Inverse folding.
């Protein structure tokens, strides 16, 4: 597939503090990418360089095969900055129409595009309203609508669910799922579970270095250490992540007693990684686990095949 973003040995410092240190990555068209890193790891700086707002100290940045110099590439690239603000005294529709006309659209074309993006983000009913009446979550949706104007080929989203309650965060995730076929999304967020729903590829940025860039789907490959399926001593082994809402007395011991279980490890509060022998009927273990929960009147939140993106992040952090 075509590479639309290419960074080769990109570095950036502010004074004596090096924010990006020889970062290299290739992003191909049509493949949503999660950019994951702690606060201060350099995610926003990386986005600013891609937009042309900052210049790298060294290295090469290419967008659509051309070296970034100036703002010419912004006709094809859009960015949603964290906590974008809108003029409280103008209607949503009029503001978006102005932004659309900055894409060299006629008034008629601009209005058509505004109607399109408001429908995509579920804001059509608010077109005549002023932005000041919108909740924080709805303003996030409005910012996504703005980023869609002009049908960009790439959209950079910096913390699109920051500060949102779980319901609004899920709404934003669903919108991103709906639009991921319209443009290539690069999403920076701390909401790892939501990123896992949207992005097949993840790039970990830590202390200015891009320490890992791989397809998230690769965790399902047998050779991966985080695999849903692997081979241990010639025996087919499956991994399942179990999430519970509460502490369940005796849970670990009773799961260990199931014949197929190889190991069970608590990865965080009320979450466990279970490795078990697949055998001839890999779903038999899941049936046994469900039966165990039913017999003990227990409740669970999720069964996840393989290891979660969140656990991979903590695992890598602990390894360093």
């Amino acid at each position: 597939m075509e590479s639309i973003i290419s960074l080769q040995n990109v570095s950036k410092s502010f004074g004596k503090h090096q924010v990006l240190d020889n970062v290299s990555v290739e992003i191909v068209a049509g493949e949503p990418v999660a950019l994951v890193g702690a606060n201060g790891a350099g995610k926003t700086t990386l986005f600013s360089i891609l937009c042309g707002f900052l210049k790298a100290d060294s290295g090469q940045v290419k967008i659509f095969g051309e070296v970034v110099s100036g703002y010419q590439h912004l006709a094809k690239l859009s960015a949603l900055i964290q906590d974008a603000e809108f003029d409280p005294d103008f209607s949503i529709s009029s503001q978006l129409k102005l932004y659309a006309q900055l894409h060299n659209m006629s008034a008629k074309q601009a209005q058509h595009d505004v109607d399109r993006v408001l429908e995509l983000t579920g804001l059509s009913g608010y077109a005549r309203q002023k932005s000041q009446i919108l909740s924080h979550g709805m303003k996030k949706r409005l910012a996504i609508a703005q980023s869609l104007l002009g049908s960009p080929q790439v959209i950079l989203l910096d913390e699109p669910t920051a500060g949102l309650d779980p319901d609004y965060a899920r709404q934003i995730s669903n919108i991103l799922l709906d639009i991921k076929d319209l443009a290539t999304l690069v999403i920076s967020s701390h909401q790892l579970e939501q990123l896992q729903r949207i992005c097949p590829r993840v790039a970990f940025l830590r202390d200015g270095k891009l320490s890992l860039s791989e397809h998230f789907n690769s965790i399902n490959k047998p050779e991966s250490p985080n695999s849903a399926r692997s081979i241990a001593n010639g025996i087919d082994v499956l991994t399942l992540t179990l999430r519970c809402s509460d502490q369940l007395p005796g849970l670990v011991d009773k799961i260990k007693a199931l014949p197929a279980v190889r190991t069970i490890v608590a990865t965080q509060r009320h979450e466990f990684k279970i490795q078990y022998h697949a055998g001839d009927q890999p779903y038999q273990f899941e049936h046994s686990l469900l039966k165990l929960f039913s017999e003990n009147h227990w409740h669970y939140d999720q069964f996840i095949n393989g290891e979660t993106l969140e656990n991979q992040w903590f695992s890598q952090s602990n390894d360093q």
Summary: The chain has three domains: 3-76+152-219, 87-147, 222-319. The first helix runs from residue 43 to 51. The domain at 222-319 is CATH 3.30.70.100 (Alpha-Beta Plaits). Residues 153 and 182 are 8 Å apart (CA to CA).
